[in-house]
Amino acid sequence: MTTKTIKFTGVLSLQTFASNSKSEHEALCVTLNNGKSYRVRRLGAADPFEKDAVWSQWIGQTVKGSGEIAGGGNTMITHALVLAPPVQAKKIKV
Q1: How many whole angstroms separate alpha carbon 75 and alpha carbon 50?
Q2: Using one digit for the tens of pLDDT, what is the confidence trace for 33-55?
Q3: How many degrees, rounded to 5, is the angle at CA 9 between CA 57 and CA 44?
Q4: How far apart are CA 23 and CA 35, in angstroms?
């Protein structure tokens, strides 16, 4: 199996995965600027269905990190997810 590692910045949210199946669950997800969403899992997490306590506090905020895309292309496995610094508005002279 080949994996692809990417660096990313996106908004963290909670989304439903595997709808209408026995595996249906809510999972942390990062949505990139291009609109693509990935379920986010910490590298080495014992239970893929358990939400990360620290990362769950960041729902609705912009995060950045790097990770490997797995799970048929819809899961990002990462060990480095941090809050992105807020974007500062540029001052314009008038």
Answers
A1: 14
A2: 889 988 888 887 767 667 778 88
A3: 60
A4: 24
Is 55 exposed, middle or buried (CB count within 10 Å of its CB: 0-12, 13-18, 19+)?
Answer: buried
Contact 12, 58 (CB under 8 A): yes
The 3-class secondary structure across 19-35, one letter per residue, is CCCCCCEEEEEEEECCC
Number of neighbouring beta carbons within 10 Å of residue 56: 11
- Copy the structure tokens of residue 68: 């490997």
The strand pair at 75-83 and 37-42 is best described as parallel
3-class state of residue 85 by DSSP: coil
> Where in 1-94 does DSSP place strands (E)?
4-17, 25-32, 37-42, 62-70, 75-83
Instruction: Kindly report the pTM of this predicted structure.
Output: 0.76
56 sits in which H/E element:
helix 53-56
How far apart, in whole angstroms, are the C-alpha atoms of residue 93 and residue 20?
55
What's the rounded Cα separation, in Å, for the pair 70 and 90?
37
